Amino acid sequence: MQKEVTTYLDLVKRWDIFLNKINARFQEALIMAKEAIMNNLVESDYDMTQTSLAWSGIKAQIQNLSDKIEQTFEEKVKPQMLQYKKEYEILEEYQKGLALSETFYSKIERFQIELEGEIGLKFYNHAIRFLNENFKCTQCGAQLQINKNIFRAQYVSCNYCNTVNTFMPNAKVSEIKWHIIDKIARYKSINEYDAMIEAQNQFNSLRMPADNEDKTEIKQVLKKREITEKAYWNKFFTERNKYFDEDTNDVKRYIENKMKYFYAEQQRILNNQ
Amino acid sequence: MSNPFKKIIKNSGDTQKKWERRETLDILTKKCPDCGAARPKDTNLTTCDYCGYKFMKINEKIKPDNI
C-alpha cells in the first residue's frame, strides 16, 4: 500500500514537472516569435502581408502546446494514474493541465496586441517618412502641402498657380490606414484592455441569479464591466484619432456602437432572457 | 540557438501570393485633352475652365474642392 501511494505521488510529481516544462516552453516560444517576426519585418522590407502570414503560422504552432497537454494526459498520464486511483480521483490532475492550457489562449491574445502594436509603430515610422518628401506642383513646381492624416489619394491645390494636383500614395502609406493604426491604438490601450478583461473574468466567474434571487452582486459587476469597456473604447478611439482626422462626433458614435452590444447583453441578463 | 520559427517565416515568404503594389508616390494632373490646360482650384470638374471642353456628358456642376 505504501509503495502504491509513493508511485502515484511520483506520477503526480512527473505530471507537475511536465506542466512546468510546457509552460516554460510556451514563454520561450513567445520570446522567439517576437524576435523572428520583428527581424522579418525589416528583412521583408516591411511586407505586412508576409508578416501577418508568418504570425498566423507561429501562433498556430504555439497554440498546439495546449493540445499537447491534453494529449499527454489522455495518452500517457491518465492510463498510469488509473492503475492506482479511480477516474474521479484524478480529475484534479486533469484540471491542472486544463487550467494551464486555458491561460495560453488569453496570454497569446494579449501577446498579439503587444506584438502587432510594436510592429505597427515600427511600420508607421518607416512608412510615414514617404509623406515627408517634397511634393511639387506639376505645373509651376511650387511645393505642395499634402494632408498627412488621411493616407489615401487626395486633391492638392497649388497655393501659387491654383492648379489642382492629384496625390497618389504608395502601398505602404495606404497600408497605414488599413492595417496599422488600429493595431497601434489597441497597443496603446493595453492597460484599459487589461482592466476590461479582468472585469469580464470576474463576471464570467459568477453564477447567474434566478428570478427570485438577489441581483445586487451581478449588477455591481455589470457596472464594473460597463465602466471598463467604455474606458477601453474611449481610449482606443482617442488614440486612433491622433493619427486620423476624424470628427469628434464620429468618435462618440463609434463608442456608442461598440457599447450597444454590452447594453443588449446587460438587458438580457437582468431580465433573465 | 537558432530561432525555431525561421522555417515558418521562410514559408510565409515563399508561398504568399505576390500582389502588384504601387511603389512610388506620384503627383499627377488631369489635363484637358482639347487645350492641354490643367484644372484650376474651385472650378467645375465636368468642363474645362479654359476652352469649355466637356469631360463628362452631364449638365450638373461638380466642384470637389468645395466639398
Structure description:
The complex is a heterodimer of chains A (273) and B (67). By secondary structure, chain A is mainly α. Chain A has a domain at 189-273. Helix content of chain A is 71%, strand content 3%. Chain A is built from seven helices and two strands. Chain A has helices at 2-43, 48-81, 91-127, 171-188, 190-204, 216-241, 248-270, and strands spanning 154-157, 164-168. Chain A has a two-stranded antiparallel ribbon. The termini of chain A are far apart. Chain B has a domain at 26-67. Helices cover 15% and strands 4% of the residues of chain B. Chain B contains one helix and one strand. With 67 residues, chain B is low in regular secondary structure. The longest helix of chain B has 10 residues, at 6-15. The A-B interface holds A 29, 32-33, 35-37, 40, 44, 47, 49-50, 53-54, 57-58, 61, 130-131, 133, 135-139, 144, 155-158, 161-171, 173-174 and B 3-6, 8-9, 11-13, 15-16, 19, 21-30, 38-41, 64-65.
> Which sheet architecture does the biggest sheet of chain B show?
none
Low-confidence stretches of chain B: none
State which percent range the strand residues of chain A make up. Answer: under 5%
Number of helices, where a helix is a run of at least 4 consecutive DSSP H or I residues of chain A: 7
Distance between the termini of chain B: 59 Å
Task: Tell me the series of helices and strands of chain B, N- to C-terminal.
Answer: HE
Tell the overall outline of chain A: flat
Beta-strand content bin of chain B: under 5%
Q: Ends of chain A: how far apart?
A: 54 Å
Discrete helix count of chain B: 1
- Tell me the major beta sheet of chain A: 2 strands, antiparallel
In round numbers, the mean pLDDT of chain B is 86
Instruction: Indicate the percent of residues in helices of chain A.
Output: over 70%
* Chain pair with largest interface: A-B, 42 and 28 residues
**CA radius of gyration of chain B:** 24 Å
The quaternary structure here is heterodimer
